[in-house]
Design goal:
Elements: H1 5-41, H2 44-63, H3 69-84
């Protein structure tokens, strides 16, 4: 347990930041799943729409250092390839 006042405060702040980061990470996973579901359903127009909104979500979460920029790039690349490979 934290003994000094500043250590107790940092512990409180860490709990708050952890909750915030977890919610952002959850939003990221939901965005990725939405694109994968649209691709699986086979509707290319819907998949492209969901893909474009998911890209901004992935970028914003990477900008906040919740995930690494390379991981964000990898997700975007794989989702883009999945949408492009769909039959028109």
């Amino acid at each position: 347990m934290a003994n000094s006042a500043q250590a107790r405060k940092r512990a409180r702040q860490a709990v708050k930041a952890r909750g915030h980061n977890a919610s952002l990470r959850s939003r990221l996973r939901t965005a990725i799943k939405a694109v994968r579901k649209a691709v699986a359903d086979g509707d290319k127009a819907a998949a492209q729409t969901v893909f474009s909104t998911s890209m901004s979500t992935i970028d914003s979460i990477a900008d906040k250092n919740i995930i690494h920029k390379n991981k964000a790039s990898r997700h975007k690349s794989r989702l883009s390839a999945a949408v492009k490979s769909m039959a028109a």
